[in-house]
Amino acid sequence: MPKFTRRRLLAGAAPLVAAPVLGKMTLGSDAGAANRTLQGHVHDHRSAGHAAMIGQNVPAVGGPRDLDALLYPPPPLPYEPGRIREYEVRARDREIEVAPGVFFPAWTYNGTVPGPVLRATEGDILRVNFTNAGSHPHTIHFHGIHPTNKDGVFEIVNSGEEFTYEFEARPAGFHPYHCHSTPLKKHIHKGLYGALIIDPKEPRPPAQELVMVMNGYDTDGDGANNFYTVNGRSFYYARYPITVRRSELVRVYVANLTEFDLINSFHLHADFFHYQPNGTGDYREYTDSVMQCQGQRGVIEIEFANTGLFMFHAHQSEFTELGWMGFFNVVD
Ligand code: CU
Ligand code: CU
Question: How many CA atoms lie within 13 A of 195 on its CB side?
Fold first, then answer.
């Protein structure tokens, strides 16, 4: 297979370079239409690709509820002293389909990239029983405050071994977790990362809550990403827009775990939002775009002024065209 780099993909010769990958698509009856859409949108800017991609013809993998467990976090629990929040996390190798016909040999937590959304309330004891059923040594490194012997750096967990991370959940905020085995770049890029919400003792106002973990996939091993997503599948929320009610606050926990690229970003169309970096502290920005370095994260709160379809995507246009794009469907 010819090298399928994003630089060449976006250059003039792209349709020829990309053809073998697109030819591998296996979408079933609408594969032809999907291929044309992806090809039109990504590769040929002179064609009908100018229209926004949305709905059933968008080439995204899977059914409408596939990513619910990654999009909708577990509910917050009110503060209660001494409570234990316990999670089972299992590392395993798994080939995942990131775009139609495009498979990635991932290393996963619990079989998905990103891994499961973990949640605790500040002051809870967070207990994560980790089993390494994968083929390489792994760990879980949580961002936050905890003893250094639970930091996922020194206690390497070999294949077939187990380790329990247990510490008080703090500070309140939104934090990433990821493997910290070496080579770090590889262990992260292969898919070992996820989101941890720590709710403040004084709860945030009720909201429709969503989690979006931004990532990329280098599907040809050249050290540059070929696809970008939120929650693991390119163009997924363009094919299946996220329905929210205008009457209720929308809160989005956004984190960037993209490897290789220095930054990623979240941009909302047709409205503004408040952004709290890390989900901590009093500082709020009022904006329609936020930029995050790898490992950065924050909490977005949107009060939609209107109903309708609101696009969101990386403000790096290249990332958008390689899969990091979706829609909110705001209804009354
Ligand atoms: Cu690892
Ligand atoms: Cu980190």
Answer: 35
For CA atoms 283, 287, 291, 296, the dihedral sign is positive
CA of 112 to the centre of ligand 2 (A): 18
Distance of alpha carbon 125 from alpha carbon 86, whole angstroms? 8
Between the CA of 261 and the centroid of ligand 1 the distance, in Å, is 19
Q: Which helix (H) or strand (E) holds 38?
A: helix 31-38
In 3D space, the residue among 209, 203, 193, 176 whose CA is nearest the CA of residue 300 turns out to be 209
Say how many Å lie between the CA of residue 257 and the centre of ligand 2.
Answer: 9
Tell me the residue ranges of DSSP E strands in the chain.
84-99, 102-109, 118-121, 125-132, 141-142, 162-168, 173-178, 193-199, 208-217, 227-230, 242-245, 250-256, 263-268, 273-277, 285-287, 289-293, 297-302, 308-313, 325-331
CATH H superfamily, domain 77-199: Cupredoxins -  blue copper proteins (2.60.40.420)
304 touches 271 (CB < 8 A): yes
Using one digit for the tens of pLDDT, what is the confidence trace for 221-260?
999 999 999 999 999 999 999 999 999 999 999 999 999 9
Do 247 and 284 form a contact (C-beta atoms < 8 A)?
no
Q: Which helix (H) or strand (E) holds 174?
A: strand 173-178
Q: Where are the domains of the chain?
A: 77-199
Task: Show Cβ contacts of residue 49 under 8 Å, excluding neighbours closer than 6 positions.
Answer: 37, 40, 41, 42, 43
Q: How far is the CA of 182 from the centre of ligand 1 (A)?
A: 7
Residue located via tokens 């190798």: 93
The two structure tokens encoding residue 34: 């999907």
> For 295-328, what is each residue's pLDDT tens digit?
999 999 999 999 999 999 999 999 999 999 999 9
